[in-house]
Amino acid sequence: MSHSLPWLQPEQDFPPVESTWGEQDPIPGLLAAGGTLDASRLRAAYGQGIFPWFSDGQPVLWWSPNPRMVLATQQFRLHRSLRKTLQSFRHSAHCEIRIDSAFATVMQHCAQTPRAGQNGTWIVQSIVDAYTELHQQGAAHSVETWVDGELVGGLYCVALGRAVFGESMFALASDASKIALSALVALCRAQGAPQIDCQQATAHLSFMGAREIPRAQFLKTVSEQREQPDMQWKFAPVYWDQLLSDSP
User: Fold this and answer.
1) Segment among 121-125, 154-158, 214-218, 229-233 with least mean pLDDT
2) Which of these, 38, 177, 225, 240, could form a disulfide with 171 (CB 3.0-4.6 Å)?
3) Which residues neighbour 120 within 8 Å (Cβ) at sequence distance 6 or greater?
4) Could you give all domains of the chain from N- to C-terminal order, each with its CATH number?
5) Which residues contact 206 (CB under 8 A, 6 or more apart)?
6) What is the Cα–Cα distance from 39 to 134, expressed in whole angstroms?
7) Is pLDDT above 80 for 247?
């Protein structure tokens, strides 16, 4: 039986995620609406497995889906074609991974990239402002694919300790977003981050090894990993070697 959606006042605590709308409710996965949207609010939300997702003209909508789409970093599927792409990228003097060198530009590209079945974007200005503030505090990061000195793809994510939450990707060249995701996986493996939150189930992420797990299981890992020391957000080329040799 459906129940009314909580409307948050500024600074009001989030309701428990167990009260998130389920399959019998109008919009499964929706937890609450309203409240403030800034860096401190994002920290509180992600620490509890909650994230914002809404469009222009809507209030801030907060989500905590069950099950949750998660990419376990040791379960990343490096398919043959991508492996060849990464090997070529790894050994090219014209190609490099940069981290946090163009966060605002990555967000802008993610917002502007057309996506099948979607009109407009959920990366509205208030989202850009809040995540930019979080980035300035060192808890949101961009992983960037550069070729010949040009930014051709990337992603941005949130990180609390060793709890990592993927947000959005873009590509202006073939496989550029997959290269960035592979780099994030390699970084997470090297620094002991066990999972990357993918939020929503997609066929693309499933193909790369992500799967749905119970929210309670996801939250247990988040609770453990957010208390770990912050990761070092620098990419070493040796991470490629470890990924290419370790992946199943």
Assistant:
1) 121-125
2) 177
3) 55, 56
4) 7-65 (3.30.70.3550), 69-246 (3.40.630.70)
5) none
6) 5
7) no
> Which structure tokens are listed for 208?
């790369």
As given in the structure block, the two tokens for residue 11 are 């600074």
> Encoding tokens for residue 172?
């202006």
What is the reported pLDDT for 248? 54
Helix orientation angle between 103-112 and 125-136, rounded to the nearest 10 degrees: 160
